[in-house]
Specification:
- By secondary structure, the protein is of the alpha+beta class.
- It has two domains: 154 residues, Ribosomal Protein S5, domain 2 (2-Layer Sandwich), CATH 3.30.230.10; 122 residues, Alpha-Beta Plaits (2-Layer Sandwich).
- 32% of the residues lie in helices and 27% in strands.
- It is built from nine helices and ten strands.
- A hairpin with a 6-residue loop joins strand 8 and strand 9.
């Protein structure tokens, strides 16, 4: 079983735009203990199926990143080694939600196939394959606290970063990333400020107060219910609230897991049609500097 965590952009600054149209970012991202799950098993013929609460929103044809990842890995390994597989996705994360669900699923498939087909490509090769499939793929392949720069392909891992109590809220709306970037009023913003020397809940929250998500205002003009999601988190006691990625999922920061669970229950009761999840982010690996 492969796990595909949600990616949360705690801060996301848009710092420029290349001549080819790709935007440059500066983002602190973490990954959560809540996410999608995938099984990859040998089979007589290739197969792909989807279950879970958000299965109806997942395409099952060749446009799905999971199948693109399978085909890219098969091209690299060759048909003799890359035998047919049955891939099953349990889709627990909403689609087009700003939390990297599709990219994380794709990254999980790349890792799983490298293991299944044996002596697969190393991390650098997986990063190259992933980078060709989507800008979020390098981050999702790493799946640990990091700062991403460039188009999302320049990664710096963050040592000593704690697990954070989070509540994720999506008002049941998908927002197109391209539309949000097109609606930006400015693309040459300041990069992230220097990270704190020491990380704990309070230093992270205080640092976040001096950062932004430069996509938030543009996304909210497209989908005003993002404001309602943020307001619901604030009413439930969030110590810090922001939209993740290009939206519409928002996150609230909570000092303890129990506080996050109580807040999630409160929001879920008030908004039964929304996606609401209490979770924790995964901390830095021990000894990472």
């Amino acid at each position: 079983m492969q796990f595909a965590p949600a990616k949360i952009n705690l801060a996301l600054h848009v710092t420029g735009r290349r001549a080819d149209g790709y935007h440059l970012i500066d983002s602190l991202a973490v990954f959560t203990r809540f996410g999608d799950r995938l099984s990859i098993e040998p089979a007589e013929h290739d197969a792909f199926s989807v279950s879970g609460p958000y299965a109806p929103a997942v395409p099952t044809d060749e446009t799905n990143l999971i199948l693109k990842a399978r085909d890219a890995m098969r091209s690299l390994h060759g048909p003799a080694r890359a035998t047919p597989v049955a891939i099953t996705l349990e889709k627990n994360l909403p689609v087009a939600a700003g939390i990297g669900g599709g990219s994380s699923d794709c990254a999980a498939v790349l890792r799983g196939l490298a293991s299944l087909w044996g002596t697969g490509p190393g991390d650098a090769a997986l990063m190259r394959i992933g980078g060709a499939l989507g800008a979020d793929l390098p981050m999702c392949l790493a799946a640990k606290p990091l700062v991403a720069r460039g188009t999302g392909d320049e990664l710096s891992f963050v040592g000593g970063f704690p697990a954070l109590g989070l509540v994720l809220v999506n008002p049941g709306i998908g927002v197109g990333t391209a539309a949000v970037f097109s609606a930006l009023e400015r693309r040459d913003n300041e990069p992230l400020p220097p990270l704190p020397r020491h990380f704990d809940f309070h230093s992270v929250r205080n640092w976040l107060e001096n950062t932004r998500n430069d996509l938030e205002a543009a996304a909210q003009t497209i989908e005003p219910s993002i404001g309602a999601a943020k307001a619901a988190l604030d009413r439930a006691g969030s110590a810090f609230t922001r939209m993740s990625g290009s939206g519409a999922t928002c996150f609230g920061l909570f000092e303890t897991g129990n506080m996050a669970k109580r807040a999630a229950a409160l929001i879920r009761n008030r908004h039964p049609g929304w996606f609401v999840a209490a979770t924790r982010s995964m901390p830095s690996e021990p000894g990472l500097s």
